[in-house]
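Lecture notes, unit on protein representations.

Consider one protein chain, 291 amino acids long.
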Amino acid sequence: MTRRPGASAVARAPGLVGLLALAACSKAERTGPFLSISQEERAPVPRGAVPPGSIALALGGLPPEEVTRLRERLEEATDASVRRAAAVLLEGVALVPDAAAPAPSPWLQALPDLPALTAAANVLGAPWSAPGLSVKLGPACDAAASRCVPLFAPAAETADALVRHGRALAWALGNAARLRVPGAARAALLRSLRGAQTRPSGTIALVFGAPGGALDEAELDLLREQARRAQAHLAPDAPQRPWLDALGAVRSVWALPVALDADEVLVVPRLSALARLEDFHAEVDLAGTSL
């Protein structure tokens, strides 16, 4: 099966994951959502280090146990920071790892899943902007747009550089695989996709079985509390503060900026997978055919 960027991609598993019919693609072309691409002279609007809502969306697109894992890693990083500070205070020397085998930073390990967070930030990034270019996502075409293309309709290779560049800005949704899944196969397919999602060398960043949802509030409260505890042991200008601030304020409710039907699943690739989209498509196919 050939797939193109922006297509309503599907995995093939006879009787389990159904191919979206051409009629559905035609419907998508009529009803959207659409990418409205405009040339602009003004500079892109600066954005914060951690876009609002991106952590909740990332956690919503990861396996449910990710909230617990993140809290535990954050607790380990905080404890390591406290031990290091205590050693400096009491012994007067810093704990320096062996230069021949440097230990990984506990703070780096305590970051939210970076491929998922990067993809979630792009999913929620509309309007996307770059020097001389702006891309809006909406249910209809912007009348002032230079170009307007369906987000999920099959997109053939085009010589139109403006369309290519516009789709590249909206890379997460523009290359996502939208699957139509019968109810009996839904749970099994989601498990299979989430298993592929956790592989370090994999191509899948996020998996959504619904257009919105809510994280476990009790687990989220523990995560927020741990984030606030971690901040107490950091310098005011520590680079970890922006994402710890975001973790401390993360809300339980998350929502995609696009609709999903009750029988659809959305699979978003990692940024690193854009150079090997065939591998992403194969991994999604394998999740469907291995059921």
